[in-house]
Amino acid sequence: MQATGRPAGRPEAGHGDDREAVRAKRAVAIGLGALWTFDGLLQLQPSMFTGSLAGTVAGSLMSLPPAIYFASLGFIEGFFRGNVAALDVGIAAIQVGLGVSILAGGERARRAALALSILWAAAVWVLGEGMAGVFGATMAGGVFPGTPCIASGFPGAAAVYAVAAVLLLVPDARWRLSGRFSVVRDAPALLFLGCAAVQAAPLMWTTYGQLSIFASNAGSLPPALAGAAAALKTLAAGYPVATNLLEVGACLAAGVGLLTLSRWGVAFALGWLAFIWVFPLALAGLLTGAGTDPSTPPALALLIVPAALEAGRRAQR
């Protein structure tokens, strides 16, 4: 038998689906590695050495079940405030190390980094993101209690990083973008549909719920965008039912659009994520010098790459 020269388990590049699967997996790996590296570098911002890390962790604990919150608050705050510099540098080193290993490591190093990144993402999701508020009210910037929704960052960047790592650990031969259903292709569509259900929570149909999305972060935006954010806040507060109907509908449209593998569906999903990232999430605070990650939308956009490539391939038939 003649040797092919390709790594074992990698799909043949002789068919369109296989070529797109290879491209998709490579793109997701590069994106995930870049995100972890970027997160690590954000940890070295000057504001991170002022004790803000302890505040972030304490704020995240407020979204955990009360028993866990009260049992751990004193220890966590004391530990983090007493070791700020060492923890910041350590966290940065871990995250940059994970990112670089995923980007440039050999096969064993890359797979080990992916497995470790799942564990690290779980820790970040609990201590840094408060489990995205799934066990209680999120604080949406510390002003208005609300319910977890995609417009306030649900399910959390760390959770999406973990999903991406799990998908990247799937053997190359099982990465298929065609067929009626593909986990690696349809995962973001299912997430959007789940977010639509979460967005339909009773509180989100009220002025209180909509203010939990729009009221807290406008000050983190440049003046050119802050005015639009203020107008959106006023509109959402005045017409909460109509606003939430649009938000639920947008999540449903994004999910269905991705499942149908149409180019418009991919474009709509990416546009909806861009809107969320700019306005409700205020660019994840990256312009303030206090952001610790780009938040959920960029990570979820990365997971859309397989669907986008398959949609493009089908459109060219």
Descriptive notes:
With 317 residues, the protein is mostly helical. The protein has one domain (16-308). Helices cover 65% and strands 0% of the residues. It has 13 helices and no strands. It has helices at residues 16-42, 52-61, 66-82, 84-104, 107-127, 157-169, 183-199, 207-214, 223-238, 240-259, 263-278, 296-303, 305-315. Helix 2 packs antiparallel against helix 3 (66-82).
Distance between the termini: 34 Å
Tally of structural domains: 1
The fraction of residues in strands falls at under 5%
Unreliable spans are 1-14, 137-145
How large, in whole angstroms, is the Cα Rg? 20 Å
Order of helices and strands: HHHHHHHHHHHHH
Shape: globular
Total count of strands: 0
Helix count from the secondary structure assignment: 13
Query: Averaging pLDDT over every residue, what do you get?
Result: 85
Structural class: mainly alpha
Sketch the major β-sheet.
Answer: none
Residues in helices, as a percent range: 55-70%
